[in-house]
Automatic annotation (TrEMBL):
PANTHER family associated with the record: S100 CALCIUM-BINDING PROTEIN, S100 CALCIUM-BINDING PROTEIN U-RELATED
MF annotations from Gene Ontology: calcium ion binding; calcium-dependent protein binding
Organism: Astyanax mexicanus
One GO CC term, this protein: perinuclear region of cytoplasm
Entry-linked SUPFAM superfamilies: EF-hand (SSF47473)
InterPro entries named among the record's database cross-references: EF-hand-dom_pair, EF_Hand_1_Ca_BS, EF_hand_dom, S100_Ca-bd_sub
UniProt protein name: EF-hand domain-containing protein
Domain EF-hand: 55-78
Superkingdom to which the source organism belongs: Eukaryota
UniProt keyword terms in alphabetical order: Calcium, Metal-binding
Amino acid sequence: MEGAIKTVVSVFLKFAKGKENLGGKEFQTLVEKQLNNIMTDAENSKAVTKMRQGLDENKDGKISFQEYMILVGELSKTRLNSCPGNSPYKSVNSH
Ligand SMILES: [Ca+2]
């Protein structure tokens, strides 16, 4: 658990390159490099742009750490739902 938190934080810092936000390009790179195993659309730049717009709560075109955490939470939920054997929850939106 501690390791996972450190990873989540260090990934953000690495791709934000010391800034407080991920720009569009940085976000795209992060998704491509880090999430291509769990996201089918990771290399589809249109899909990633759409996802970024959905996460961008204050509409400044950039992804803050807070907005990035929304993504991490959403992906964690998806992951939980995709493992019915390990999950105490029923998958509501399963395909
Ligand atoms: Ca934002």
